[in-house]
Write a structure and sequence with these properties.
Spore Coat Polysaccharide Biosynthesis Protein SpsA, Chain A; 10 helices; 13 strands; binds uridine 5'-triphosphate
């Protein structure tokens, strides 16, 4: 019997430079797609995948995230008084229960790997765990993390969600070196962070969904700087290869890179089109811009 994945880490300590000035006083992860912040999509995906402990690695200026996943007495009282109990109910649904959320702080944004390492003492010594990056938004029938947890129940080890990207984009993502493929699963031989298109071992890219083994903390603890001078999660994952199964799952669904402006705008359109209350208006708007 494989160990159940109960805990998820949400690294939200980054600076969000690409979204300045919007992110000057507001966390990037609070940017909304339609009417919901990016981080809420990630938390709801984790909830739907059975996660019970939500660990946020925050940083300076990220208080809005803590407030978002808390009860707001004033808002609750106001909605109650106005007879808007249904709205109140819908908000209460996704707020984790008391004791399910933990915040730890990444004092300097030294990279994604460093952010994950900051949560090391909140994960058990033998406990596999999930990591979700809120700026990778996935639209799918079955939540992406659930798909990964189902694979992990069969394979054990580490599992990352992967997708094909255009070769000219390999210098934006972690890229797989593939040993073999069977169905939607790739056995991983190597991992490279942001390789030049000419050097990329494949065009299969890791998206921001990971199931990892706690041994990764040993590698992250060495604080080795990689691409961009940052402590990279990809490098630490590469160092664990060979010590257990490591699979890439071609997940079912569509991923939007919301850390990038074009990806963010596309996600807004796609999520609006998926909503009955907004789709007709959105289609009309898109038609009116067809020749722009
Ligand atoms: P990114 O590198 O895309 O985010 O990290 P960023 O650094 O915030 O954005 P730009 O590049 O400056 O525009 C992906 C995720 O990892 C987190 C970010 O908050 C984001 O959710 N992260 C990144 C950290 O928590 N700490 C870091 O040091 C770096």
């Amino acid at each position: 019997m494989r160990q159940t994945i109960r805990k998820a880490i949400f690294p939200v300590g980054g600076l969000g430079v690409r979204f300045l000035p919007a992110t000057k006083a507001m966390p990037k992860e609070m940017l909304p797609i339609v009417d919901k912040p990016l981080i809420q999509y990630a938390v709801e995906e984790a909830q739907a995948a059975g996660i019970e402990q939500f660990i946020f690695v925050t940083g300076r200026g990220k208080h809005a995230i803590e407030d978002h996943f808390d009860i707001s007495f004033e808002l609750d009282a106001m909605l109650e008084a106005r007879g808007q109990g249904a709205v109140l109910e819908s908000i209460r649904q996704w707020i984790p229960r008391p004791g399910q959320v933990t915040y730890t702080r990444q004092m300097e944004p030294l990279g994604l790997g460093h952010a994950v390492w900051c949560a090391r003492d909140l994960i058990g010594k033998d406990e596999p765990f999930a990591v979700l990056l809120a700026d990778d938004l996935v639209q799918s029938k079955v939540p992406c993390l659930k798909q990964m947890i189902d694979v992990h129940a069969q394979t054990g080890g580490s599992v990352v969600a992967v997708m094909d990207i255009p070769r000219e984009h390999t210098n934006r993502y972690g890229i797989l070196d593939i040993e073999s493929e069977s169905g939607n699963l790739a056995v991983i031989r190597g991992l490279v962070e942001k390789p030049d298109p000419a050097d990329a071992p494949s065009t299969l890219s890791i998206i921001g969904r990971y199931i990892l083994q706690p041994e990764i903390f040993t590698h992250l603890g060495r604080r080795i700087k990689g691409t961009g001078g940052e402590i990279q999660l990809t490098d630490a994952m590469a160092a664990t290869l060979g010590s257990g199964p490591f699979h890439g799952l071609r997940f079912e669904g569509r991923r939007f890179d919301c850390g990038d402006k074009a990806g963010f705008l596309e996600a807004t359109i796609a999520f609006a089109l998926a909503r009955d209350d907004l789709a007709p208006a959105m289609r009309d708007i898109l038609k009116s811009y067809a020749d722009a």
